[in-house]
Amino acid sequence: MCLGIPGEVVELMPGTEGQLAMVDVEGARRPVNIGMLEDLDVVPGDWVLIHVGFAVEKVSKEKAGEALAGLQMLGHDTSAPQ
């Protein structure tokens, strides 16, 4: 099992032969290797799941939102007083 972090593609990075994209994850932008998705048409505005710097799957905005919500639940300490 791997943990995929959803991010939105904001730019395809020039000079990388379509291998790198700038991806926004909750306001943090990082270069991500999209080479594993070469059979898919990845464009700015698309959402991808990222694992160790590689986009492993193209997902819908809705599925990305569900994944983010799940990750936020994992980080929530239910034993702490509110």
Detail the topology: elements first, then pairings:
Blueprint: E1 5-12, E2 20-25, E3 28-33, E4 47-51, E5 54-59, H1 61-74
Antiparallel strand pairs: 1-2, 1-4, 2-3, 4-5
Which key terms come to mind for this protein?
82 residues; alpha+beta; SH3 type barrels; five-stranded antiparallel β-sheet; 1 helix; 5 strands; 38% strand; globular
Describe this structure in words.
The protein has 82 residues and is an alpha+beta fold. The protein has a single domain, classed as SH3 type barrels (Roll). The protein is 17% helix and 38% strand. It contains one helix and five strands. It has one helix at 61-74; strands spanning 5-12, 20-25, 28-33, 47-51, 54-59. It has a five-stranded antiparallel β-sheet, with helices on one face. It starts with a strand and ends in an 8-residue tail after the last helix. 16% of the residues are buried.
